[in-house]
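Lab notebook, bench 4. Still working through the backlog of constructs that have no structural model yet. Next entry is a single chain of 550 residues. Request: give me the structure tokens for it.
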Amino acid sequence: MSIVVLIVELVGALGLFLFGMKILSESVQRAAGDRLKQTLNYMTGNTLKALLTGFGVTLLVQSSSATTVMVVSFVNAGLLSVVQAAGVIFGANVGTTVTAWIVSLIGFKFKISALALPLIGLGFILMVQSKRSSRLRDYGEAAVGFGLLFLGLDFLSHVLPAPSADMLHFLAQISNLGPISVLIAAIAGAIFTVLVHSSSAATAVVITLAVQNVINFEMAAGLVLGCNIGTTIDALLASIGAKVNAKRAAFLHIMFNVLGSVWAIILFRPFLALVNLLAGGSTVAQHIAMMHTIFNLINVLIFAPFTKQLAGLATRLIKAKPGEEGLHSKLEYVTAPLMDSPELNLLRARKEIADMAGLCETMFVDFRKLLAAPPKDLTEDIARFKQMEDYADQMREELSSFLLQCAGHEMSAASSANIGVMLRLVTELEDITDDCFSLVMLLEKAASRNLDMDKDEVHALGPYTQLVEDFLRFVKNNIEKTINAEQLANATRLEESIDDFRSELKKKARKRMQKGANVKAELIFIDVIRHIEKIGDHAFGIARGLREVK
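Model written out:
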């Protein structure tokens, strides 16, 4: 077989393996959309929960690169802290070892093609039933993905020729170079993983080479250590141009994998002795899977207890630009590979919308403070409110564009329906920030014209504005959930109470004008009442949307 034909067939087999993994990952994410979101929400807990989250998500999507890139982008958006991200990244490294176990236990124990073709056939049957159930189509695509993955693995095992005597002699010479042979293998593994952008695929190739007796277990172990270094390239690329915390999260991933590989190379012989002890008389493929698992578990045991200290080290080493961490900047979305994971994209959008709800509450609470004790000069307050209102406008534009891009990708029926609701939520929230800014401008208008509102009038607004603040807090606390019928009924009562207050306050203002009160001051008072009531209307619109979320 010529070298050109060998390379073409090897690339084709590897491409089939990667394509199967891609289909499997995307279909599983769609089928398990809600459960995946619940798992990701779990990452806000302690380090153990973050570890379990990283393991669980990687186990589900079969790609530690996808998990770590997602985590880096979440940190970039301010949705995760560096400490939380570290735990998820550590767990993802353990989760990626599952692919090696699948390959070692199934890939070479049975005739793979006998397993692959029935899976593809079953998957096709489920996919043609998609008119009845979108979930069936997702399961069907997952089965096809598994089938293609196994078929690619089968082609890999047949493409590689039996090693010649010269090749065996060359490999034997390299293997006898001591620590240098381990370094050569690690460098080769890192380069190969960078090229294919998948440590799982690179590890599958290494296992195939070992099973075909092209390389021995020691060289395979060195290659796998290199694969763990090479897989950090995706997180590094995702952090380019991102905010400082995203760079710190990517740095933690690199530090975890590189330092972990360094100790394993230094203690290579004792480490392999431990693996051989635990693996017993299993096959070379299972030995490699065991080595991969033990390596990552030991790394977790070493690094996990010091997550906060490692995050602090990353903060000291990667400095923020002057003012970078304290400024609201333009939202930046990493469109690849996240755009291949619609369910994760929607989770990210929900968290951004929650941040927008928090901004609305902050603006209204600050307005209430200004109303109760207006300063002599509102210039700085107006500038601050203008900055927040501009930021909300920007969020609306960016989030709407992001959600519309998500809508163009295949996803579960529930997620597709949720996009329309989320677009409405974004619009309602941005309208609230507009009204909050208008309220502050009304205070400035009254001050600039020396139109002092009566203290009794301002006092009468207290319970009215408190109701709206309570409503906004309800929105913020439930923006990432689906509210039940009882909660919607409570929201309805809040909205009705706000309407009743508005009518009563406007009636009193008209009576004061009839008795000779300052008409201009009373008109401003009525405008304040109107904008506050509009905020209540928008909050109720959000509550109705949250009831529709699936």
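Notes after review: Confidence is low (pLDDT under 50) at residues 326-339. Residues 1-31+105-159 form one domain. Flag for follow-up if needed.
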